[in-house]
Amino acid sequence: MTQLTAPPASTAAVGAHDALGSPWPASARPGPGGDLLVGGVGLAESAERFGTPLYVLDEAEVRARARAYRRALPHADVLYAAKAFLCSAMADWVAEEGLGLDVCSSGELWLAVSAGFPAQRILLHGNAKSPAELRLARRLRVGRIVIDGPAEIARLAALVAADTPQKVLVRVVPGIAAGHHAAVRTGVGGQKFGFPIDGGDAAHAIARVLDQPGLELVGLHCHLGSQITEVGPYLEAVDALVRLMVEVRDRHGVELPELDLGGGHGIRYLPGDEELGLAEFAVRVTDRLAVRCAESDLEVPRLLVEPGRAVAGPAGVAVYRVLSVKHGSDGRCFAAVDGGMSDNPRPALYGSPYSVRLVGRRSEAGAARVDVVGRHCEAGDVLVRDAVLPADLRPGDLLAVPAAGAYQLSMASGYNLVGRPAVAAVRDGRARLLIRRETVEDFRLREVGR
Ligand SMILES: Cc1ncc(COP(=O)(O)O)c(C=O)c1O
Ligand SMILES: N[C@@H](CCCC[NH3+])C(=O)O
After folding, report:
1. Structural contact between residues 379 and 244, judged by C-beta atoms closer than 8 angstroms
2. Neighbouring C-beta atoms of residue 371, cutoff 10 Å
3. How many helices (H) and strands (E) does the chain have?
4. Where on the chain is N6-(pyridoxal phosphate)lysine found, per UniProt (predicted)?
5. Looking at residue 398, what is its pLDDT?
6. Measured between alpha carbons, how far is 252 from 27 in angstroms, rounded to an integer?
7. In 3-state terms, what secondary structure has residue 245?
């Protein structure tokens, strides 16, 4: 194992009070016996109680983040992007904190409405909404649908009677590159989402939507990409969308009342990472919108934002058990854990960095560089490359990964029939199971023939 002299940086920063900027929930505190308390409950204690891999969600962190959005943007509609992570409890928390919900499938829509989320506060996205999905959305009376492709205009219009119009937005592509990886940059041409503004596709789609008596065009939408840490791209998006709104007014005599800037707000994965500053975002975007509208004598539209990662991500911690520690021929040390790319595909998909720390025991050993790898049948199944961990790391140890609340479980797969982890919520010193672990029996239960 490569010994390091510096203290293990990834184990140093814990609470949000940390000067470096911490990826851990604000409630994170050192606990007894080397445990780490989140929401007042030890991670090791929860791992013993619920098993591993375990995803722990800090309810207060989700609620505080949702509330911070409402406070920073009191005149905007804030819709939590369910794709980051959704379960009934999550739907309750964001509903109670006054957020709406952005869903992008009948699965997300059905789960939210079954959990009691008010359908009028739901907005449906999707670049390939099926006729059945659109019918479900209409039947459940979702508040808004974002039109993302030409076929959807007639498909949706056919489902809607003129006397019960459907509020819709048109998703446009402003030609702005932002986001942590090419796979998530959706504000530019050459990708599958939306109608490009350049070349006139967006203007054409808007004209077609305005021609449909059952469709009430309430605004324009764009989503630039994900894990964006600067406000600049959003200001450019405001410019581009307001320009298009002015064109719509001048050409059709219609002032659109809503402008949806999508999500994409970046969070910290490593200590010291930049995150998107919510206060700065709120002030600069709101000001820019007011200025651009005033320049063209346009009524200021209501702002919509759809943060997913920034609400759920920092509230989640993944806890794994080390099953094996081994040294490669080049001296590299591998600590293999009981989860991996099936519960967190992000490192394999995007090369996403994470930090990790030992929990549940104190170590006096020095620091070592370790690759924390998963249990799947791929050499690329590496969860944290070059992690700094105690040199005496051994099988049975527990490792905790912060910033695990978004795009991990929601992108989890059934690879190797390992089964998806359990999810527990913590709050005020108590833990409760939200989602049970997927068992081997669950796989067989879906089979209906042989
Ligand atoms: C249309 C739309 N809105 C909102 C989001 C949420 O993004 P994030 O979780 O990065 O805030 C996404 C995903 O990137 C999206 O595609
Ligand atoms: N899955 C991506 C984000 C996709 C956002 C959906 N539009 C990530 O983890 O970064």
Report:
1. no
2. 16
3. 13, 22
4. 83
5. 98
6. 52
7. helix
- Are 36 and 422 a contacting pair, CB within 8 Å? no
Q: What does the radius of gyration of the chain's CA atoms come to, in whole angstroms?
A: 23
pLDDT along the chain (450 residues), means of 10: 46 46 96 97 98 98 98 98 98 98 98 98 97 97 98 96 91 94 91 95 98 97 97 98 98 98 98 96 98 98 98 98 92 95 98 98 96 97 97 97 98 97 98 97 96
Which residue out of 104, 222, 333, 377 is catalytically annotated? Answer: 377
Distances (CA, A) of 338 to 83, 325, 347, 372, 401: 25, 12, 16, 11, 13
pLDDT at res. 5: 46
Residue 138 neighbours by CB under 8 Å, 6+ apart: 159, 160, 166
Using an 8 Å Cβ cutoff, are 333 and 4 in contact? no
Cα–Cα distance between 336 and 306 in angstroms, integer?
36
Q: Is 307 annotated as a binding residue?
A: yes
E-assigned strand segments in 270-351: 302-305, 316-327, 333-337
**421, two tokens:** 């982890």
Query: What number of other Cβ atoms are within 10 A of residue 243's Cβ?
Result: 14
- Please give the distance, rounded to the nearest whole angstrom, from the Cα atom of residue 345 to the centre of ligand 2: 11
Is-above-0.90 flag for pTM? yes
Closest CA to ligand 2's atom 4 = 184
| pLDDT, tens digit (0-9, with 9 covering 90-100), for 97-108 | 999 999 999 999
Percentage of the chain surpassing pLDDT 90?
92
* CA–centroid distance for 215 within its chain: 29
Rounded CA separation 229/281 (Å): 10
Active-site residue flag, 333: no
What is the Cα–Cα distance from 244 to 299, expressed in whole angstroms?
14
Domains in the chain, please, with CATH? 2-58+314-445 (2.40.37.10), 59-313 (3.20.20.10)
Closest atom of ligand 1 relative to the 312 alpha carbon: 9
pLDDT at 1: 54
Residue 228 DSSP symbol: B
What confidence score (pLDDT) does residue 11 get? 42
Q: Is 199 annotated as a binding residue?
A: no
Measured by CA distance, the residue closest to atom 5 of ligand 1 is 263
Distance CA 336, CA 255 (A): 57
- Strand, coil or helix: what is 449? coil
